[in-house]
From TrEMBL:
InterPro entries: Gfo/Idh/MocA-like_OxRdtase_N, Gfo/Idh/MocA_domain, GFO_IDH_MocA-like_dom, NAD(P)-bd_dom_sf. This is Oxidoreductase. Belongs to the Gfo/Idh/MocA family. Coiled coil: none annotated. Keywords: Oxidoreductase. One of its GO terms (molecular function) is oxidoreductase activity. Residues 134-253 form the GFO/IDH/MocA-like oxidoreductase domain. Residues 6-124 form the Gfo/Idh/MocA-like oxidoreductase N-terminal domain. Pfam families: GFO_IDH_MocA, GFO_IDH_MocA_C3.
């Protein structure tokens, strides 16, 4: 570490890295982006110049061989997460891996174990959980203001169906709406309820025009006590990005639940007794907060709020949802 900062390397020039994660790390208090790698030198150099990154590598292996890199962020297509997480761990690098952590829970377990053996940190990049409004939302729930939680509904949809060459539409690369955006409401329900689902039932539209990946899915996750998450996710539907938590005495509405932009409001609403109040939360860069939580762990040993077991458990829920959608049946999780 130099200047008490984590020196990050980015493996791949994906859009999420360029638009959000790299700027987030650069704006963080604990990290600096020291290098970026692509499958060829031209793309890496162009991206490095555009984002003021000191080093550019024409292969992922070269970046991992750099002794001045402490941690890597992996925004590669889903089917490559396992390989490069394990290779990064074996090179002694801490790993922040883009969601979904893997293709399935078995892969996620292998990744977590490889990082444990190497003595490096491993975490899945769900940035929304680091936003302070979720602490505020959980405080409202703990206060009893909305009563006992009865159900949660989450939606995350967008329409990018015309981009036929997108990696999201390739089965062999881990494409599909559940992997891409359904993971958010699934994660959010587990986070809010602080327990794991018991069963899943999902219906999906598998598009022949898009390599038969799920372009839209609607699902139910069952939790103990009769509580459920209902969710829908899609890549060929009008855009939504919402979460609603319904209790016996009221509800919480989160208009921009997972992705927030600088010109958007980070507020949420609490509805009780026929009245709706707005809870304002100042804008923060949730990618920077994620980087700082990771950085404090690497630099000072502060525990990660969401570690490897969380990534594995989320993939177990995703596995159940995908099996249910493909086989048109309710799937029980092995708890």
């Amino acid at each position: 570490m130099r200047e008490n900062k984590v020196r990050w390397g980015v493996i791949g020039c994906a859009g999420i890295a360029i638009r959000s994660v790299i700027p987030g790390i650069q704006q963080s208090a604990t990290g600096t982006v020291a290098a970026i790698a692509s499958r060829g030198p031209d793309k890496a150099r162009e991206t490095a110049e555009r984002l003021n990154i000191p080093k550019a590598y024409g292969s992922y292996e070269e970046l991992l061989a750099d002794p001045e890199i402490d941690a890597v962020y992996i925004p590669l297509p889903n089917h490559l997460h396992k390989e490069w997480t394990i290779r990064a761990a074996e090179a002694g690098k801490h790993v922040l891996c883009e969601k979904p952590a893997a293709i399935d829970a078995a892969e996620a377990e292998e990744m977590a174990e490889a990082c444990r053996r190497a003595g490096v940190t491993f975490a899945e990049a769900f940035m929304y959980r680091y936003h302070p409004r979720y602490a505020a939302i959980k405080a409202v729930i703990r206060s009893g203001e909305i009563g006992e939680i009865r159900t949660i509904h989450g939606a995350f949809t967008f329409n990018n169906a015309k981009d036929a060459d997108n990696v999201r539409y390739k089965q062999w690369m881990g494409g599909g709406s559940i992997y891409d955006v359904g993971v958010y409401p699934i994660s959010a329900a587990r986070f809010i309820l602080e327990r794991e689902p018991e069963a899943a039932a999902v219906h999906a539209f598998f598009s022949p025009e898009h390599d038969h990946v799920d372009m839209m899915a609607s699902g139910l996750l069952e939790f103990a006590g009769g509580v459920a998450l209902t969710f829908d996710c899609g890549m060929w539907a009008a855009g939504r990005n919402t979460l609603e938590i319904v209790g016996t005495e009221g509800r919480i509405e989160v208009p921009s639940a997972y992705v927030v932009h600088e010109n958007a409001q980070d507020h949420f609403y609490v509805v009780t007794g026929g009245e709706k109040r707005e809870v304002e939360v100042p804008y923060v860069n949730q990618y920077s907060l994620q980087a700082d939580a990771f950085g404090r762990n690497v630099l000072h040993g502060e525990p990660m709020p969401f570690g490897p077991s969380d990534a594995v458990n989320n993939m177990r829920a995703v596995d159940a949802c995908l099996t249910s959608a493909r086989e048109r049946r309710r799937v029980e999780l092995n708890l």
